[in-house]
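Section 3.1: Structural characterization of target chains.
Under the original work plan, the team committed to producing a structural model for every single-chain target entering the pipeline before any wet-lab resources were allocated. The record below documents one such target. The sequence was received from the expression subgroup and is listed exactly as submitted; it comprises 152 residues.
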Amino acid sequence: MDKDKFNEIIDFAVAREKEAVKFYQDLQKMVTFKSRQKVLKGYEEIEKTHIVILEDIRKNIKKNIESPLPEIQDLVISNYLVETKPTDDMTYQDILITAMKREEKATQLYTKLASEAADGQVKKLFQKLANEESKHKLYFEKVYDEEVLTEN
């Protein structure tokens, strides 16, 4: 894969993460309770760290593309949840569902792009990005499992 193609893919992924940062910033303005704003601010910060991870992938092309992909556990919790529309009175559960669904869609996008990639290195890069998004989804599923499901 040439450097321009690689950078184009990373730029695409960074743009998606920046959209996620903006999404959580916008939600912070919508919700009225400080505790929900604090949770959303935390999610915004998580998305910002994803941008840092992508820039690290950009800087360490060879190491990151050639490194083996760890298997990420999928709790499949988000598969059984209905996506909620963001509102100013979102519950903590709604916020977690929204976060899970966003990560699930990102994983699906990169997985699909990997399956369609003809170039082996492009395929590996999309698999790496799908793997990262799977980690993010797992994080939110664990929080949901520990803080929502165990309370009910």
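Residues 3-30 form the longest helix (28 residues).
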